[in-house]
Amino acid sequence: xxxxxxxxxxxxxxxxxxxxxxxxxxxxxxxxxxxxxxxxxxxxxxxxxxxxxxxxxxxxxxxxxxxxxxxxxxxxxxxxxxxxxxxxxxxxxxxxxxxxxxxxxxxxxxxxxxxxxxxxxxxxxxxxxxxxxxxxxxxxxxxxxxxxxxxxxxxxxxxxxxxxxxxxxxxxxxxxxxxxxxxxxxxxxxxxxxxxxxxxxxxxxxxxxxxxxxxxxxxxxxxxxxxxxxxxxxxxxxxxxxxxxxxxxxxxxxxxxxxxxxxxxxxxxxxxxxxxxxxxxxxxxxxxxxxxxxxxxxxxxxxxxxxxxxxxxxxxxxxxxxxxxxxxxxxxxxxxxxxxxxxx
Length: 344
Known about the structure:
This protein is an alpha/beta fold. Helices cover 25% and strands 27% of the residues. Strands 3, 5, 6, 9, 10, 17 and 18 form a seven-stranded mixed sheet that branches. The protein has a six-stranded parallel sheet with strand order 13-12-11-14-15-16.
């Protein structure tokens, strides 16, 4: 099969499109023929080694530490089960499925993620991928296209984990940063569906798309962090943050007593200063949220089966066009997900 193989940390030149052996499923595992695979920030950050290490934020590393090369990236996968390993229910063969990309620290529904296909194991930027049989969710009858299904796992799973861990729900006012990106737009859609009042931070060019996703107000990030903070003088119940950067220090004083700040990204800057007094004097909870639990993903899979959630697709590329797709991802500036798919 053909696959995009990451040979080391670095620029686009570290990605090679080449023929590799088709993987075989071992006990308890299935092989999925990849029909669509979406792009995420984690693909770029893993390629560039941008996650750092404890005590050395500039060290080249993946999100869980050193990455074993060569590695096939791609955490977002939708496809069809084409082979099953020993001990797997044969009824899965031929099923259209959505793949939960996570590896967990235990068997229960609330286990924490400790790895990700495309990072700690080979992923979906290939013709086939092998995953645990318990990580595929049957999408028979789902109205979503392959591209829409593939847009869900990492971005919408991460957004669902943020909302669940921070307890954001009906009647609350929440600021979503980076609202036109994959996770940001997912946060807008999911928080709105749960009855929250969403104020979204994004660029003016994507304001329309973000409003269409459910935001009641769009705050212009280009005006600066202080301008965003000034736009919410009455305060907010929570912030769902995928940006970081100078917005943290500026917006933290606007979080109401007992509020929550949940963070799952740092695209605007990973190392930030802020006044700790604003945190503890107002009983604000600062929550780190990485990906989702199995229970979060099961709820997301139910939404996909029913069509209750419909991802925005910004662009589609052929499977052999990953460098062009990543260039669009990094510089295109369009709201929604970018997907490698066999479908036009």
